[in-house]
Amino acid sequence: MTSIPFQAKEIALRKLQHMSDEYIQINPFKKVPAINDSGFILTESVAILTYLCNKHKKSNWYPTDLHEQARVNEYTHWQHLNLRLTGSTLFQTKVVIPAIKKQPPTDHELEKWYKRWQGSTDGLENVWLNRSSYLAGNHITIADLLGICEMMQPIAAGYNLDTKKFPRVQDWMERVKKETQPYFDEVHVVSMRLREKILKEEKQKIY
Asked: What pLDDT was estimated at residue 207?
């Protein structure tokens, strides 16, 4: 998609490999992702994406035009306390925390974070995608990569996008998926398996 060469290094979070002494030397915050570019270690997804685009001159993904770049930055700053926070917390509340504590989530917590995720999705629908066809303009950028990955977290947890309420979001997601194939499906293989498992379990509970 970008032709930027890389060597993938998988970190199994379920095995707590991100907590190992070796990984802490790379990211002392014990988070993923991180890159090691010939000895230059960098963490945080937004910083990594902008760095790679700047280094390899991928201006189609991270524009050099001042105004276009500012639009990408505007979205990536907004997402941290909005879509990224609400989507990831909803996923953690339904999937991660119950797995750690060995007890189901409360309806109150699920409803609270679901409503907040809906609020963030409304921001996509009526602000970002109301003024342009993509999150930061009229062509796909790293803003869209970040945005769709955050949207996929609640979906992986078994939730559905309300397509009647958020038609622009639905259309945008379909276009981003199409433009990033086959990588989109490859990246989300595990999360889609999780979704199928959750939906199957929920269906069994009903019957």
From this structure: 61
